[in-house]
Design a protein that fits this description.
The chain has about 725 residues and is of the alpha+beta class. It is built from twelve helices and 38 strands. Strand 16 and strand 17 form a beta hairpin.
């Protein structure tokens, strides 16, 4: 069994990890252990002195060594509740104005299968592959009940966490925060890794030592954001790709989030993660419940690569859904950087015809095909075809594309609206804005109120009609601004802080309806690139446009940070024109393709502008990608260098049976009079014999892992290379 209870201790076991907790003699629920299997109950490590200015619960009488301010708690009210002054996982205001929740253990339930969360994305699996543990905690005065949910997937080495809060009292309670994960770690010397950034430079890895006090990664932007990502790593100092202990957590949520880590006075660590309380509150009437989003949790004794593999597998196989979650996907060409808004039907046909001749599978029509849309200042929200640009409409264009042997895809931005649009003139009340105040514009647009059922119904009707009427096989779902001015006429003043979460619930509900109704459509998420690259969106969209930055050099850094949690199959990545439109940098077509192949591959330029030699190279790139796509999507991904330190970005894909390895990379700066660079491989069969397709040389697995492999001699800056190895059987 994955879940067992012995002498009051709860054991959650996966193939390689153990999670332990228990209710103590006062009903306080204590965290004991998360790490390698020990074959032992780890409560012997609980050893706490009388720590000054640490309060004692009343039930403890004169036991001054017993304090919730020092004990490792499984789910903490904190903030001074019960004398715990560390960061809280949950807080509420009771009807009498007090904010105390003294949570005590009541009961537990073990169930077959993995729990689900109504209205929210969550890891799914067959009933035989998981078990659920429910722990019920209650505050006896307010009758607020907290249910801690644990989904245990033994073979995946994954534990999921979620929380529901129910008001079982007779008066309303206002939740001020409900974090999905709370974990106290009373041991170790830790560093934390988060992934910061900005538009066109998302998920930049930053690894730092913990400082005493609180460190935070968060977003209040209405989306998980370009600036921070809802993932976090805790690593023992010295942890590398292949050795050392590390813990990872990924929040399955696409709205404002908060990750906080506190290093306390005793050098203990508390990690909390969930919806950002700065833009959240939720009123619970008697009998009502609130459900928090899910956190996916794993740990590894053998370094960051193994931890990444576990997240890649669970997200690819148990979060992504539908036809395309594991299958090969079409190589596409998108017209955005080729034309921007300045196109007509003939120009799109010309691009598509050339793409078809080079083996590309799909033509994607980006922004500008609808309404009065010649710039981003007007037309958004008017989803009627612009007949001046597309004289034959979407039906005529898609038919012509299909006759070329290609699939047809299209760009939507359902959540946005221009003030200069027919929709805004007809329904100004559908826009997010505060009464009597001018709204904040961003990219010249406002945002529709997805907490409003009428808006959801309109968007569903509009886009389902388009997808039913035309042969569209791909949708790029974009969202091009952060959200502020939170206000909705659908809620009274006392409940306005519910709106940000209700917006995300509305978004998920809309996506659920459309993806279910159109299972053969490949939905790609996008928010100005990677502004909503999170596990929540992957539940609906099996790939996400990684970044609006298509510069191959900078993409190596973006994709490096992305790789710690997200599988390659989820990463939308394209070859674009040079000089690059974001940086002005010029890189070779070979380099641009090598970087873009570490994802869902495509092009974003006018192929007609290429020379005959370049067109031939594109044709070979498309063929090479199709040859390697299964390996790239489903193989084990290894980071073989750190681009921040090594003057190169090198990565590898290895088949699960360790028979095939594809090494790709970019050396940033050429250096004269120097030795060839080498990289050590990971995960090979030590006694296996591997042969290089490029030069015919053979190597033992032990040699490749200990001594490494020499990279080709490099000339020029940002020079790409590729090495393909196969085990000789």
């Amino acid at each position: 069994m994955a879940i067992s209870v012995e002498n009051g201790v709860f054991h959650l076991e996966t193939a390689n990890t153990l999670y332990q907790m228990k209710a103590d003699r006062f009903g306080v629920f204590i965290h004991l252990w998360y790490g390698a299997k020990t074959g032992h109950t780890m409560d012997y490590l609980l050893d706490y002195p009388d720590v000054g200015f640490s309060g004692n619960i009343y039930e403890a009488e004169n036991q001054r060594t017993y304090s919730l301010n020092t004990l490792p708690l499984e789910y903490a009210a904190g903030g001074g509740c019960d004398g715990d002054f560390r960061i809280p996982a949950v807080s509420a205001t009771n009807a009498d104005g007090s904010s105390v929740l003294a949570l005590r253990f009541q009961e537990y339930r073990v169930k077959k299968g993995k729990y689900k969360i109504d209205g929210l994305p969550a890891v799914y699996t067959d009933e035989a592959e998981a078990e659920t543990l429910e722990i019920i905690l209650r505050d006896d005065i307010s009758n607020v009940e907290v249910c801690l949910l644990y989904g245990v997937l033994p073979q995946a080495d994954i534990i999921t966490r979620s929380v529901s809060v129910t008001n079982k009292g007779n008066e309303k309670v206002v939740l001020e925060r409900v974090h999905s994960l709370c974990m106290d770690i009373p041991y170790g010397d830790w560093e934390w890794v988060h992934f910061h950034g900005k538009h066109t430079m998302e998920r930049q890895m930053e690894r730092t030592a913990l400082v005493h006090g609180i460190q935070e990664s968060s977003s209040t932007r209405g989306a998980s954001s370009h600036q921070q990502n809802p993932t976090v790593l805790l690593c023992e100092k010295g942890c590398t790709e292949t050795s050392g202990f590390c813990i990872g957590a990924a929040l399955m949520y696409s709205g404002g989030f908060q990750t906080q880590i506190e290093l306390d006075q005793l050098d203990q660590v508390r990690l909390v993660m969930g919806i950002n309380p700065d833009t959240f509150a939720w009123m619970l009437e008697p009998g009502e419940s609130f459900y928090a989003p899910e956190v996916v949790l794993s740990c590894s004794e053998h370094g960051l690569a193994e931890l990444s593999h576990r997240f890649h597998r669970i997200l690819r196989e148990n979060v992504c859904r539908g036809k395309y979650k594991l299958s090969e996907r079409p190589v596409l060409i998108n017209n955005w950087e080729a034309t921007y808004f300045a196109f007509d039907e003939k120009k799109i046909e010309k691009i598509a015809k050339q793409a078809s001749q080079l083996g590309i599978d799909m033509m994607v029509l980006d922004d500008g095909w609808f309404g009065k849309r010649d710039s981003d200042m007007s037309g958004l929200g008017d989803w009627a075809v612009n007949r001046t640009k597309l004289s034959g409409g979407l039906g005529g264009l898609s038919e012509k594309i299909n006759q070329m042997g290609m699939k047809f895809g299209i760009w939507f931005e359902p959540e946005g609206i221009s003030e200069d649009s027919e929709l805004y003139r007809k329904h100004p009340e559908w826009v997010i804005r505060i009464p009597r105040r001018n709204p904040v514009r961003s990219r010249y647009q406002l945002v529709l109120d997805l907490s409003n059922d009428a808006v959801i119904e309109y968007l569903y009707y509009t886009f389902s009609k388009i997808l039913r009427e035309y042969h569209i096989e791909y949708v790029k779902w974009d969202m091009n601004r952060s959200i502020c001015d939170w206000y909705t006429a659908e809620l009274p003043p006392s409940r306005q802080k519910e709106m940000p979460h209700r917006y995300i619930l509305g978004l998920y509900a809309l996506l659920e309806r459309l993806t279910n109704e159109f299972p053969n459509v490949l939905f790609e998420g996008c928010s100005g690139g990677g502004g909503r690259f999170d596990a929540g969106m992957l539940y609906y969209c099996p790939q996400i446009w990684c970044s609006d930055n298509t510069d191959a050099h900078e993409r190596t850094f973006i994709q490096y940070g992305t790789s710690f949690f997200y599988p390659t199959s989820t990463v939308g990545s394209h070859v674009s024109a040079v000089p690059n439109h974001q940086t002005g940098r010029i890189t070779s077509l070979k380099t641009r393709a090598a970087v873009a192949m570490a994802g869902s591959f495509g092009y974003e330029l006018d192929l007609n502008q290429l020379s005959d030699k370049e067109k031939e190279e594109v044709s070979k790139q498309v063929a090479a990608y199709k040859r390697y796509q299964k390996l790239i999507y489903n193989g084990l991904y290894y980071r073989l260098s750190n681009p921040y330190k090594d003057n190169m970005a090198v990565w590898a894909f290895m088949s699960e049976n360790r028979n095939e390895i594809l090494i790709q990379g970019v050396v940033f700066r050429a250096r004269s009079n120097s030795l060839r660079k080498r990289v050590r491989l990971m995960g090979l069969d030590l006694e296996g014999l591997y042969q290089s397709e490029q030069d015919g040389c053979t190597y033992t697995g032990q040699a490749l892992m200990s001594g490494g492999i020499l990279l080709p001699r490099i000339e020029g800056d940002d020079a790409a290379f590729e090495i393909h190895l196969e085990r000789m059987l």
